[in-house]
Design a protein that fits this description.
Elements: E1 32-36, E2 39-43, H1 50-58, H2 63-70, E3 77-80, E4 85-95, E5 100-110, E6 114-119, H3 124-135, H4 137-145, H5 148-161, H6 163-182, H7 190-207, H8 210-220, H9 231-293, H10 306-328
Parallel strand pairs: 2-6
Antiparallel strand pairs: 1-2, 3-4, 4-5, 5-6
C-alpha cells in the first residue's frame, strides 16, 4: 500500500483578532529502545503528538496508522502494509482511581527487524517484559534472536495472561457473595452483585471483539514467524478462548446469584407479610368485641366490675385460640 504524502504545515500569519490558547499536552515520556540480534524494540508509553515527528524520522508508517494511534475510538484490528503490520489491541486494566475495569489500548507496529509498542495507558505486562529484556542480556538475546514475531507473541501472551488474576479475583467475589446470600445478608449484597455484574460486562466488551483479531493474527503471523514457532500463536488463541469461557461462566453465575438473591428477599418479604396478616386477623375479632362493649349505649352489666373481667377473659381466650389455630395450620 503506497504511503500518503506527508502533510504540509502552514504557518498562520498573526492577526489582530483574539488568539486561541495553545493546547498543552501532558508531559510525555521519552521513547525506550532495546537492540539485539538485528531486532529493535521501541516502547513509547502514552504516546503524544510530539512523538510522531520522532517516529517519522525513523520509519515510513502510513499517515492513517498515525491517526489510529492518536484516536481513542478505534476497534481491535490488524492492518497489513507492504513492509509491516499495524495492530490495535485492547486489554482489561483495573483503574484504582475510579475502582473499575477499563480498556487499555495497545498499538503495535511490527516489521521484519523492528517492533514498536505504544500503550495509551501503563500496561504492566509490557513494562515488565521490557524491563526484563533490559536487565537480562541473555534473555534479550534469546528472544530477539527468534525475530519480531516471537517478541510479538511474548508481549500479547503476557497481556492475555494478565487477565487471569483479575478473573480469579472476580471468582472470589462471586463465592463471597454466595456465602453472604445464604448467611442471611441478602439486602447487603445487592450492591455487590451489581458491581460484579458491571465488571463482567466491561470485561466482555474488551474480550469479545478481540477474538476475531487473534484469529486474523494467526493468519498473518507467517510473515514474521519461523515455521517451528507456529504453535505459539495458537497458544494465544487458546488462552483468549479460556478467558472468554470463564467470562461466560461468571455471567451465568452472577445471573443465577441475582435470581437467588431476589428469591431470598421475596421469601423474607412473604414471611413478614404473613406475620402481619395473621396479627391483623387475630386482632380483628378482638377489636369487634371491644367496640361492642365500648359503644355509647347501655350494655348488660354496665356500671359493674365483674362484666369487665368477663370481657377481658373473652378477649384473651379468643386471641389465644386463634393463635393456636394458626399455629396448628402452620401459618405461623
Amino acid at each position: 500500500m503506497p504511503s500518503l504524502p506527508k502533510p504540509r504545515f502552514v504557518r498562520v500569519p498573526r492577526g489582530r483578532g483574539p488568539v486561541a490558547a495553545p493546547q498543552v499536552e501532558p508531559e510525555s515520556s521519552a521513547p525506550q529502545i532495546l537492540d539485539g540480534r538485528g531486532v529493535r524494540w521501541i516502547n513509547i508509553e502514552q504516546p503524544q503528538h510530539s512523538h510522531r515527528g520522532w517516529l517519522e524520522e525513523r520509519f515510513d508508517f502510513h499517515a492513517l496508522a498515525y491517526e489510529d494511534v492518536y484516536s481513542r475510538n478505534q476497534r481491535p484490528k490488524i492492518d497489513e502494509y507492504d513492509d509491516y503490520l499495524f495492530i490495535v489491541l485492547y486489554f482489561p486494566r483495573f483503574d484504582k482511581q475510579v475502582g473499575r475495569l477499563n480498556a487499555a489500548e495497545l498499538d503495535l507496529f511490527v516489521g521484519p527487524d523492528f517492533l514498536v509498542t505504544l500503550p495509551n495507558q501503563p500496561l504492566q505486562p509490557v513494562e515488565w517484559l521490557f524491563e526484563r529484556c533490559r536487565a537480562n542480556d541473555e534473555l534479550r538475546e534469546s528472544w530477539f534472536s527468534k525475530g519480531t514475531g516471537y517478541l510479538l507473541y511474548k508481549i500479547i501472551d503476557a497481556c492475555v495472561d494478565a487477565s487471569f488474576p483479575m478473573l480469579a479475583k472476580m471468582g472470589n467475589k462471586l463465592e463471597r457473595i454466595e456465602d453472604e446470600i445464604f448467611a442471611g445478608n441478602s439486602a447487603e449484597v445487592v450492591r455487590d452483585i451489581s458491581n460484579v455484574k458491571q465488571e463482567i460486562i466491561n470485561f466482555r466488551k474488551v474480550v469479545r471483539p478481540q477474538r476475531a483479531v487473534f484469529g486474523d493474527l494467526e493468519r498473518t503471523k507467517q510473515r514474521y514467524l519461523a515455521d517451528d514457532l507456529d504453535v505459539y500463536f495458537d497458544d494465544i488463541n487458546d488462552a483468549s478462548e479460556r478467558v472468554w469461557q470463564m467470562l461466560e461462566t461468571y455471567k451465568e453465575t452472577v445471573e443465577a446469584l441475582e435470581a437467588t438473591n431476589e428469591s431470598v428477599l421475596s421469601h423474607q418479604l412473604n414471611d413478614i407479610l404473613r406475620v402481619l396478616t395473621v396479627l391483623s386477623v387475630v386482632f380483628l375479632p378482638l377489636t369487634l368485641i371491644a367496640s361492642i362493649f365500648g359503644m355509647n349505649v347501655k350494655v348488660p352489666g354496665e356500671g359493674r366490675i365483674e362484666p369487665f373481667w368477663v370481657v377481658v377473659t373473652l378477649l384473651v381466650l379468643v386471641g389465644v385460640g386463634m393463635l393456636a389455630f394458626f399455629r396448628k395450620r402452620r401459618w405461623l
